[in-house]
Design a protein that fits this description.
One of its GO terms (biological process) is protein N-linked glycosylation. By secondary structure, the chain is mostly helical. It has helices at about 15-25, 45-55, 60-70, 100, 125-135, 140-160, 175, 185-195, 205-210, 225-235, 255-275, 280-295, 335-345, 380-395, 400-415, 435-445, and strands spanning about 45, 85, 165, 170, 255, 300, 305, 310, 315, 420, 430. It binds (2R)-2-(alpha-D-glucopyranosyloxy)-3-hydroxypropanoic acid.
């Protein structure tokens, strides 16, 4: 009745935990977990790392199995692929499916294993360490001994083959950032578009896209984005996914989230090395060197966050995106950096703690081109929120961390285990039964 205050929000935490576990079970395919059944019917690299962090609360054996399966598709050159295709799924169930990525080169995966030729943000060593810390024992020691050399080879690949712009590590496709249609990539994609005009772009991109059968077109990247994504892959594929002369590729950028996760995971790798009797020193050194480059080259004091860099032109890509807040995870931030990032996080652009904003949006809410329904251009995502929640706790920002955790719980309690959420209304967007949403909620509720 009028005048009655709304009931206080009391989430059913036991029910949420049960449903999160059920979501992960539903998406398990025998050796790994799909991000969600229809839209993404294969194994994705950074999804599996987040999923393992959640599985650690249910079954450490399964958590290690998830990451072992992923690393079974590691390439000869060390790269851990963005997607491992499930041979039991029809090749046209996901676009672009296996045929588009062929031929895979000699330095690719083992014979009979089908993958893409890209990578995703390296959060895997951190996931392995998280599972290991929660479950000490012989089985964990054996899993760590098995996974450590593979994780180290992946990082070796990134540090040796993907180094661009004085020591920073680059990406060669928006898909490698994990934040595919982030506003960061508008400018470099626009420039690539001109070069790609004559490449083998499909005429009927809409007809080929499978995502549009499972999600609202207004929540997804556009056809124009897809055309460019395909052209950039084609250029990389046609040179055998070779990483020589990266700057001659149509797209080559440096992303703050990618570099911050690599530096963070390199610290995790140092701890995993210690546990296996290997030398942690080289990992710590690499982590510190990369963090130094990130802190000195990518922080934009006027925006109050880190920005990306177009490695081809040397131009900074000056936007406030959630990627630019993720370096808050790193130990040893330069003086004043923590408070600058927290001010941005809690200011009007991201609105953490404000009554009108749910979680941390993927893009600056005050930007004229923010689109609160469309993928990485505004909506709130559980994985980036989990990274920031972790960062806030590590930096001793307990009050903000608690507020973020309660926003995350409430979003899921209201809208379900959705892929992403409207940052103002909390409406669920994209796919449902989304694995990392379930996994990371389990971790927040632990
Ligand atoms: C391309 C699986 C993946 C996530 C990415 C997210 C989305 C794929 C797509 O889904 O990307 O990799 O087809 O749109 O952007 O971060 O890993 O959940």
């Amino acid at each position: 009745t009028i005048g009655t205050p709304p009931a206080a929000f009391v989430p059913d935490l036991a029910g949420l935990r049960r449903n999160a576990a059920a979501t992960l079970l539903r998406n398990w395919r025998g050796s790994a977990t799909v991000p969600t059944g229809a839209l993404y019917p294969h194994q994705w690299s950074w999804d599996s790392a987040f999923i393992a962090i959640g599985l650690a609360h249910l079954s450490p054996r399964r958590a290690f199995a998830e990451l072992t399966a992923l690393h079974g598709a590691q390439w000869g050159d060390g790269r851990v692929p963005q997607i491992v295709f499930n041979p039991a799924v029809p090749e046209d169930a996901y676009f672009p499916g296996p045929p588009f990525w062929r031929p895979l080169p000699r330095q690719g995966p083992a014979a009979g294993v089908s993958t893409t030729g890209l990578v995703q943000p390296p959060v895997h060593a951190t996931a392995v360490l998280a599972v290991a810390e929660r479950h000490p024992g012989d089985a964990t020691d054996a899993a760590v001994r098995q996974l450590y050399p593979r994780l180290a080879r992946f990082h070796d690949y990134l540090f040796s083959r993907r180094r661009v712009a004085s020591g920073l590590v680059g990406i060669v496709h928006p898909w490698e950032s994990g934040l595919d249609n982030s506003p960061f990539w508008d400018e470099p994609l626009g420039a690539a578009g001109a070069d790609l005009a004559s490449a083998d772009l499909a005429d009927d991109i809409t007809g080929l896209r499978r995502d549009l059968r499972h999600a609202d077109a207004g929540h997804r990247p556009t056809d124009e984005d897809y055309g460019r994504y395909m052209g950039i892959v084609a250029a990389y594929r046609d040179r055998g996914y070779a990483d020589d002369d990266l700057l001659s590729l149509p797209f080559c950028t440096v992303d703050p989230l990618f570099c911050a996760l690599l530096a963070w995971s390199e610290h995790s790798l140092a701890e995993l090395a210690r546990r296996t009797g290997a030398d942690p020193g080289r990992h710590t050194e690499r982590a510190q060197e990369l963090a130094y480059q990130l802190h000195t080259r990518l922080f934009d004091p006027a925006l109050g966050c880190y920005v990306a860099l177009d490695a081809r032109t040397g131009r900074p890509l000056r936007k406030r995106t959630v990627s630019g807040l993720v370096p808050l995870l790193l130990p040893g931030l330069p003086s004043g950096r923590r408070s600058a990032l927290v001010a941005t996080l809690t200011g009007p652009a991201f609105g953490l703690g404000s009554r009108d904003v749910r979680g941390v949006p993927s893009y600056d809410l005050t930007a004229p081109d923010a689109d609160l329904h469309r993928y990485w251009r505004g909506p709130t995502w559980m994985n980036t929120n989990w990274l920031l929640w972790t960062a806030l706790r590590r930096q001793g920002e307990t009050r903000h961390a608690e507020r973020l955790a309660s926003d995350m719980v409430r979003l899921v309690a209201d809208a379900g285990f959705r892929e992403y959420f409207h940052p103002v209304t909390g409406e669920g967007l994209g796919a449902d039964h989304f694995s990392w949403t379930a996994a990371l909620l389990l971790d927040v509720l632990a």
